[in-house]
Amino acid sequence: MKTETKVLLLLAAWICGISLQAYFAINDYVLITILVIGCGAIWFFSETKIEKEGRKESQDLMNQIRSTTNDAKMKKKQLLTMVQALPYPILMLDQFGKIVLYNTRMETFGSLTDIKGMTYLKNGFDKTIQEFLKDAFIFEKELNKQKRIRERDYELVSVPILSHDRFSGCLILIQDITRTLLGEKMQKRFIADASHELKTPIAAIRGMVEILNRDDFNDDAVQKDFLEQIEKEIMRLDLIVKDMLELSRMSISDPILDRHHVLLEELLNTAVKTMEPLAQEKKLVLKTDFGWCGQIFLDPQKFSQILVNLLSNAIKYSDHGTITVRTRGDDDYVIVTIQDEGVGMSDQQLDRIFERFYRVDSDRSRHTGGSGLGLAIVKSIVEAHGATIQVESKVNQGTAFHIKLKCI
């Protein structure tokens, strides 16, 4: 056997763990056979280990992919749930202008179904919405517009979606702002009406003061009359300011109620006794008719304010007849009615009765010193109690206010 071959065999024997004594004692051919078998075994077991490690790495990778996929599915489900829960219509366009996502409110808003995959031009939406979707897709920037759609006001918002600084679609939100705009309109009207209401007595006071300050004025009778009128106008100003402040507080937040269990009959009798002198001055009959008596859970001070205000209006707008305070009820509800036989109201006047500064008879109201805010305050307090108020009226036959309260 060649020297090179023996050296290789010696090296192989050493790798296989055969000692030198065993190596030189074994026949060359037997040695070769042993070495071949040993090397094969080493190769086999080494290969098996590599396969196991490979399979483990592959399994770990599959588990990681599966976990990532499950996380992605969960996040997608959460996103869809959130989109469906949004209180306004929403949809998403992709980079090709196709609808890829929308919620049920969008379906209801557009009276459409199965619009996924449709383009922004072919989806059956209102023409105004289609034009906005077109602008959102073409301009690829944030848009915000107010539009009038089907007799309601909406704010349309488009937010671009970017991927690696490239436009990949946009998100469209549609919000009904009818009540918001109406509130802003009413606020502007309230400010204008308040300015007018304050300006009128101020102008009257200023005119009388200018006359009283004239050097040539010396009429004692007129002076006394002017001073009495000035006092009335100041009291009216004070009432307007107080009512405005109270109504403003109620507009910002719900009235803070200090509720107690009180006997409704006692509360009504107290209000009637308070207003009786004013009724007697106009020769009006103020009577009670209690068909329901019991305790009720309310704010006695605030509810007394309601009663006094309604009785005051009944006296103010009645020149004769009877004013009745009546209760009717059962185990669940009680209805308190304040009814007069006064001038009454038309249907048009009835629709505006709870508006701020609205007066059925402006001359009568100003003469008696009303602020024009009383019924607006009454309605706010009634609603704060979780109750309702309704009005019935006929011209020259009288008016009836019905307050429906929940029993204890």
UniProtKB/TrEMBL annotation:
This is histidine kinase. CDD domains: HATPase (cd00075), HisKA (cd00082). One of its GO terms (molecular function) is phosphorelay sensor kinase activity. Its EC number is 2.7.13.3. Pfam families: HATPase_c, HisKA. Keywords: Kinase, Membrane, Phosphoprotein, Transferase, Transmembrane, Transmembrane helix, Two-component regulatory system. GO terms for biological process: cellular response to phosphate starvation. GO terms for cellular component: plasma membrane. It is found in: Membrane. It catalyses: ATP + protein L-histidine = ADP + protein N-phospho-L-histidine. It comes from Copranaerobaculum intestinale. The chain crosses the membrane at residues 7-23, 29-46. It comes from the Bacteria. Residues 193-408 form the Histidine kinase domain. It is an enzyme of class 2 (transferase). PROSITE patterns: HIS_KIN.
